Amino acid sequence: MSRPTPGTPYTMSEKRLVRVPKAGRRLPPTGSDFVEIEVVSGIVLALATVAALVWANAANTGYEDFWHRTLTLGVGDLSITEDLRHWVNDGLMTIFFFVVGLEIKRELVVGDLRDRQAAALPVAEAIGRVLVHANIYVASNLGGTGRDGWAIPMATDIAFALAVLAIVGSKAPKELKLFLLTLAIVDDIGAIVVIALFYGDGLQPAWLLGAAATVVAIVVMGRAGVNHPAWYLLHGVVLWVCTFESGVHATIAGVILGLLTPTGPVGGREVLTGLEDGLHPWSSFLVVPIFALANAGVVLDRAGIEAAATGAVAWGILLGLVVGKPVGIMTAVAVAVRLRIGVLPDGVRLKHLSGISLIAGIGFTVSLFVADLSFEGELLGEAKVAILAASALAAGLGSLLVRLTVPADWD
Questions:
Q1: pLDDT digits 0-9 by tens, 146-166
Q2: What DSSP string describes 280-326?
Q3: Rounded-to-integer distance, Cα 171 and Cα 157, Å
Q4: 293-332 pLDDT, tens per residue?
Q5: CA distances from 326 to 175, 330, 386 (A)
Q6: pLDDT level of residue 100 (50, 70, 90 thresholds)
Q7: In whole angstroms, what is the distance from residue 338 CA to residue 388 CA?
Q8: How many CB atoms lie within 10 A of CB 226?
Q9: What pLDDT is recorded for position 24?
Q10: Is-contact 158 222, C-beta < 8 A?
Q11: pLDDT of residue 170
Q12: How far apart are CA 379 and CA 396, in angstroms?
C-alpha cells in the first residue's frame, strides 16, 4: 500500500496515526489494536460457549433456574424488575452496542466508511446478502410460526470471524482482515437498524419524547464543552431507561450514545478514543462472554436435535448463514466491482473473498440476540441449535476455502 501524501487522512487500514483534516483533531488507528482484541475475544467467547453448553446439558434445570432469577433495581415506582438473562441482554449488552456505536462513528468520520468507494463494497454486500438470506429464510418459513426470525442470519460475529481468519489465514494481508472487519461493522449497522425498526414492543410516545430530549441534552453538553464523564453517565442512564420504557429495545441507547460521541477533543479530552480504549476490552472479555454464558446454553439431546433437523426455523437459519450470506456477498461484490461502484483492496482478488464470505456466516452473538427477541420456548431452542451448527459449519468451510485461496507466502 502506498504511503498517503501529506495532509490526507489515514484510514483504519494504516498502522500509523490517523489524521483528520481539522487541526487539533486526531484519532489513533483502530485496525491492528481492534483486530487483536477481537481475535483474543473470539477465543474467550468460544470457551464461554462451551461452558454454557456443558452447564445446560449437565444440569438444564439449574442453568435455566439461575438465569430466570429476578433482580430489581431502583425503588418503588422508579424500579425495574427483570430476570438475570434479560438484565444481561437488555442492560449489559448496552455496553457492547455502545462500543459498536463508537467504532461505527470512527469509521464514518475517519475510517474506511468515510471514503465512498471504500464503503461501496461492504454496503453493496450488505444489501445483496440481506436480499438473499431474507428470501431464503422467508421461503423456508412461509406461512409458519417462525417468520419473525428472518433477521437472525443478518449480522457477522466480529470476534469469532476474526479469530478464525487469524488462525487459518495468518499470512493473509491486513487488507483482507480489514475488509472482513469493515464488512462485519456494516452488518452490525444493518442489524441495529432492523432491531430498532422491527423488534420494538408497543411504542410509548411519552418515553420516546423523553429519550429524544435526553439526546438533545447530550448534544448541548458536548457543544458547551462539558467533559466530565459523570454528566454523560447520568444522561446515558436516563436515555437507557427512556428507551427501555419506550418499547424500542434498550440496547439501541448504547448505539445512540456511541454515535453522539465527539471524535475530537472536548475540554482537552479525546472522548471517543478514551471511551473506546477503556471499554473495548471490557466489552470483549466480559460482556460478550457473559452474554454467551447466558444465551448459548441449549440442551443437545436427541429430541432437540431431531426437532432442529426437521424444523423450518433451523433450516432457514442454517441456509441463510451458510448459503445466503456467501452467495449474497460474492454476487453483490462482483456486481459492484464490475460496475465500478467500488474497488477491491490492494492485492485482493474476488477469489480471495470466497473464504471470507463463508466466515462471515458466523452469526453467533447478534444472531442469538435477535433469536431471543424473536422466539421463546421450543422455537428459541431450535434457533439456538441452528445458530451454533451454522456458525461451526461456516467457520469450517470458510477456513478450508481460505487455506485453498489465500497464498501461504502472501506478503
A1: 888 888 988 888 888 888 888
A2: HHHIIIIIHHHHHHHHS-----HHHHHHHHH-HHHHHHHHIIIIIHH
A3: 21
A4: 999 999 888 888 888 888 999 999 999 999 998 898 898 8
A5: 19, 6, 17
A6: confident
A7: 35
A8: 15
A9: 39
A10: no
A11: 64
A12: 26
3-state SS assignment for residue 364: helix
Identify the weakest region by mean pLDDT among 13-22, 229-238, 330-339. 13-22
DSSP states of 10-25: P-TT-SS-EE-SSTT-
Tell me the C-alpha distance between 9 and 209, whole Å.
38
Give alpha helix (H) positions in 17-115: 31-58, 60-67, 84-86, 93-110
Task: Please provide residue 80's backbone torsions phi and psi, each rounded to the nearest 5 degrees.
Answer: -130, 130
Give pLDDT tens digits for 260-280.
Answer: 888 777 767 777 888 888 898
Please count the helices (runs of H) and the strands (runs of E) in the chain. 18, 6
What does pTM read for this prediction? 0.81
Place of cell 483474543: 40
Best CA proximity match to 25, nearest among 266, 273, 264: 264
Cβ–Cβ < 8 Å for 384, 311: no
Q: How far is CA 200 from CA 34, 130, 255, in A?
A: 31, 20, 15
Q: Could you tell me the CA-to-CA distances from 40 to 127, 147, 390, 402 in Å, in that order?
A: 30, 35, 21, 20
| C-alpha–C-alpha distance, residues 149 and 142, integer Å | 12
**Residue closest to 369 by CA, chosen among 253, 244, 250:** 250
Contact between 20 and 263 (Cβ < 8 Å): yes
**Average pLDDT, rounded, for the chain:** 83
For 138, how many CA atoms within 13 A lie in the half-sphere containing its CB?
8
174, containing H or E segment: helix 174-198
Distance between CA atoms of residues 398 and 355, nearest Å: 4
* Distance separating alpha carbons of residues 148 and 176, to the nearest angstrom: 34
